[in-house]
Amino acid sequence: xxxxxxxxxxxxxxxxxxxxxxxxxxxxxxxxxxxxxxxxxxxxxxxxxxxxxxxxxxxxxxxxxxxxxxxxxxxxxxxxxxxxxxxxxxxxxxxxxxxxxxxxxxxxxxxxxxxxxxxxxxxxxxxxxxxxxxxxxxxxxxxxxxxxxxxxxxxxxxxxxxxxxxxxxxxxxxxxxxxxxxxxxxxxxxxxxxxxxxxxxxxxxxxxxxxxxxxxxxxxxxxxxxxxxxxxxxxxxxxxxxxxxxxxxxxxxxxxxxxxxxxxxxxxxxxxxxxxxxxxxxxxxxxxxxxxxxxxxxxxxxxxxxxxxxxxxxxxxxxxxxxxxxxxxxxxxxxxxxxxxxxxxxxxxxxxxxxxxxxxxxxxxxxxxxxxxxxxxxxxxxxxxxxxxxxxxxxxxxxxxxxxxxxxxxxxxxxxxxxxxxxxxxxxxxxxxxxxxxxxxxxxxxxxxxxxxxxxxxxxxxxxxxxxxxxxxxxxxxxxxxxxxxxxxxxxxxxxxxxxxxxxxxxxxxxxxxxxxxxxxxxxxxxxxxxxxxxxxxxxxxxxxxxxxxxxxxxxxxxxxxxxxxxxxxxxxxxxxxxxxxxxxxx
Length: 587
What we know:
Elements: H1 12-21, H2 25-36, H3 46-52, H4 57-80, H5 92-104, H6 114-123, H7 129-137, H8 139-144, H9 147-156, H10 158-179, H11 194-197, H12 201-210, H13 214-231, H14 235-249, H15 253-256, H16 262-274, H17 279-290, H18 298-307, H19 309-329, H20 337-350, H21 352-358, H22 369-401, H23 418-426, H24 428-442, H25 451-458, H26 469-480, H27 489-497, H28 508-521, H29 527-536, H30 545-563, H31 573-586
């Protein structure tokens, strides 16, 4: 009971000294109980009655203690709700709580009384600095503090806030990276709506840590900027946007109102939800960026929000939609202000790291060759693909009408436009747009003959594709939707030899993406092609356990559909993983 003596209540030290120096210990104990028991005359007659029912004094005092503790906590809560005085003066209730805190803090070391003092700390508006120092110096006490008390501490001791925040950020990124190699779903990471992505326990824990404290929110953003600069990992950009929108979902106006990016992120989030940026929302985004003053640091945060892979995906997808509309309306990309704006946003997204690193907060210039040459070349390719689709339909209808005639054949596809192939080498923007077009034709019934020709071209660009798991995840999901094409050797060679194998064969993330692709299309591939790819991506001793585990599961699935082609080969990841785990237990 250390701490009781400090407030004038006899504790264990007093009792030890009394029993050591007394001549009659039993009498000393009886006097101690009389002096420190519940001194209410109305309770005295009840004590013998409790004795007759074999109710121990300890049980009686514990029952009274719990009753009093609950009443005291209710009283603390009532005092905390009193309104402040005029001119921002502290309310009478807050003053009373502070006085009570000063008097009762010494008993925080008493385990049964600690919850009362912690609740008192939780309900005061301001914790004295001397009290904060005492809590920080006691690790066990700091650990027991509720989150509301820790927020007071973190405002003065940001290193402690960082110690608790860093593991959450690491876990968040680890979860995002793990989702890139999900064998249970063929869908890409861009398929999930933004609000559902914000329902994670890690994000909710971060919101709880920040509360309504603008200072802690600013510290969190600084952590994200620093980690983004150090690692170039775009998942920190995703978290920058998700954190702000999660606060928006929680109606945390005290932070949203001071974050100058709020309206921009809110508008962009609506676009991501619709997977398209229409003219009205595009104008709102443009107005916001045009309203920024040159040199304002907010441009770095805007670029980070745009650098979120889900935002990049939405912008690129919107450009392809507008190019399709341009084909139908016979208009050129350079005449479409919306396309120019989207390319501008995309350029800002790709410049996020450079802007924050250089601290030069001005919008980077865009090479307009992409508008006047590269994008029109892509639009020409889109027209050729659509004409080829129309020709195939006409040939099919003629064959039905004249079954006796020799069926016609499509002409040999034209080579890819040279302007496009050359432009992809130096324009990162064009690479993102072309990858989006590849996704489109993967989910369409035309242009598939160009997939294995376009993909190898993007590997020669300045965009470090092999480090961008989000883009690779999208590519694998798109290719999985054209599994039948992998029965053609030319297509397999174009995808594996000319695209995936251009990366370092020991690069773990690429190996995992190839495993995921084979998981969904391996049963369609020629046997020799499949064996060759499996041999190339076979992990060695230097690779992590996760790579070995995924590769072993793939081997088991392949052996399953080789044994019998009569039965379904579409076993889920969970089925095979469960069987593998069961076999290990048997062994």
